[in-house]
Design brief:
The chain is mainly β. 0% of the residues lie in helices and 51% in strands. The chain has one domain: Methylamine Dehydrogenase, Chain H, CATH 2.130.10.10. Strands 1-2-3-4 form a 4-stranded antiparallel beta sheet, with no helix packed on it. Strands 5-6-7-8 form a 4-stranded antiparallel beta sheet, with no helix packed on it. Strands 9-10-11-12 form a 4-stranded antiparallel beta sheet, with no helix packed on it. This is THO complex subunit 3. WD repeats lie at residues 79-120. Keywords: Repeat, WD repeat.
Length: 207
Amino acid sequence: MADYGRDRGAAAPDRERVVLADVRNPAFEGYGLRDLSGHRKKLSEVKWGPTQAHLTMALDDGSVRIAALNKLDAPIWRLSSHASHTTCLAYSKNYKFLASGGSDALISLWDMEELICLRTYSRPDQSVRTLSFSHDAAWLAYCSEDGAGTIDVVSTQTGDLASTLSLKSYCECVAWCPAAPVLAFAGDEAKEGYGAVSIWAPPKPAS
């Protein structure tokens, strides 16, 4: 559960601490910058945002908390996202949207300018494992921890389900290309002894 800013990385190695790393240092020197332990809840994931001076944290009480780096125990915003613990986070490229997934099998979509929940998606049957925004924030892809797994692609504007990808194996992560509507996802399906990485693009509209 790690995320990278312009020249820094943030990770929660044991769900209790946030560790900052100076990625300009090739050796990292024991993570490089600081070990922050100001918060009091178990962490599932951390993300930089909505600025490089803030961290967004997914916590086991179902909330999402956004705090300044030097005041992790005094969050600026607390978003009540899930009935049980928050499992994963994703920001859109422009930080306009924040998505959170939870063990309650829900995905919450937040407008970060208004700090309101725009809608929730409830197609997964189990805990949400991973999610990602397209480069233009038009699409959100997510996958739950159910069996072989499926990936849903939904519109952030209408909430409509655009596509469902049926997987042959458990999905570990999804990620959109930063410059085009192309989705990559990785799972446990073995190819030549390694886990498979697959690429998918939505069909072009009929002319």
